[in-house]
């Protein structure tokens, strides 16, 4: 019986300038704690403490996928550095959001122009999260947001406010076409667009915060101080925010129901693991003849959890909430598991255009990018 192939090769990430980020050294993608990654549909942003490279992957390992380089103006006095990176995608607008160690939110165009700069709160930005709840068929109302996670606080920006700001910025660009190239690249403070409104919550009473997220209700202390030596490290939310997968320092993974505030599942023996939710065609007629085409809708997909266990060299996919392990695949050392950022959808989007959650694997040593197959067949 032929062995099933659960991944599909998409292309390669190739660029001579990747050597600036450490490429060429075995394990460079996963061993540098200051190297940040953010994936979009056809692009990837890689950042160290001072520079961001935006690249597109190609079908050839010899092709150069370099697109642009971003060097933010950072404070040398404060030893400021890039501490978080994420894509913001609104229909035809794609920009890159950066967080800094001094608490600034920076938004850049794909041309490398600074669109917006704003101090969120003094302190290091740990993570930028983009989330929307309109993917959940059980909810009629939609809520799209960008969260800024910091050691003692979490800030929430409404997605519609950011989209309106980007639209206004897009309109102002017609004023600059006749200016010299060098003047167009002068970094501005974003004041001509105005400050973005946001909400700010103090979460310091729960102890030192390693990661956080907004679930739409009064959040439980997901990263509260545990009985020594357990310590929460990373979390990932399901599309609706009703499930959270949390990794801790003892190699455990907790699946938490954020509505009932109970742990519904526990895995042990997964030190340094990373988790991402993924949607797959399970127990569906996923394969059709070569002459026919089926467009799947959301109800065809089942929510699963992909667990990358680098110490074991594997990726496992488990059916939610308490279903079986669907499959296990080997994962080359030096690989990272990634997922494209949430895309802010227009109101005109139809159910038939539903794009499921996917999980990608990037091999830093070879540059190869692959995606987990949606179907188990």
How would you describe this protein?
By secondary structure, this protein is mainly beta. The protein is 6% helix and 37% strand. A five-stranded mixed sheet has the order 9-8-7-6-23, with helices on one face. A four-stranded antiparallel sheet has the order 1-25-24-22, with no helix packed on it. A hairpin with a 4-residue loop joins β24 (360-363) and β25. The longest helix has 14 residues, at 159-172. The protein is globular, with a radius of gyration of 21 Å. Mean pLDDT is 81; it is low at 135-141, 177-189, 222-226 and 286-291.
The ordered H/E elements are: EHEEEEEEEEEEEHHEEEEEEEEEEEEE
Going across the major beta sheet, what is the strand order?
9-8-7-6-23
Weakly predicted, low-confidence segments: 135-141, 177-189, 222-226, 286-291
Taken from the alpha-carbon principal axes, the silhouette is globular
What percent strand? Answer: 35-45%
Calculate Rg over CA atoms.
21 Å
Strand element count = 25
Helix percent band: under 10%
Question: What structural class do you assign from the helix and strand content?
Answer: mainly beta
Total helix count?
3
User: What is the makeup of the main sheet?
Assistant: 5 strands, mixed
N→C terminal distance: 13 Å
Instruction: Determine the mean pLDDT.
Output: 81
InterPro entries: Rab3GAP2, RAB3GAP_N, WD40_repeat_dom_sf
Organism: Escallonia herrerae
Domain Rab3-GAP regulatory subunit N-terminal: 222-338
Protein name: Rab3-GAP regulatory subunit N-terminal domain-containing protein
